[in-house]
Amino acid sequence: MLNTKLHYRFWVGISIILILYAVIKNFMIDPHMEGFLQHKTGFKQEFNLTVWLNVMYIHIAFACIAMAAGLYNFM
Hints:
The protein has helices at residues 2-29, 34-37, 49-73. By secondary structure, it is mainly α. It has one domain (2-32, 46-73). Helix 1 (2-29) packs antiparallel against helix 3 (49-73). The mean pLDDT is 88.
């Protein structure tokens, strides 16, 4: 029983760290994804940065929700 609780607490800690990292990195430190976009080259056409950022924010938010929901599934 103790071993199971220890494993669960370990995964709770890892999940919280990953969720906080994603939120802090993408919404506070680099909200315009400049670091990510610097690596993207060779665009065939121009894209709308505002729309792309909104889609990316939604993608990150749902990824964090999915990680929390997956963790809740094992309670």
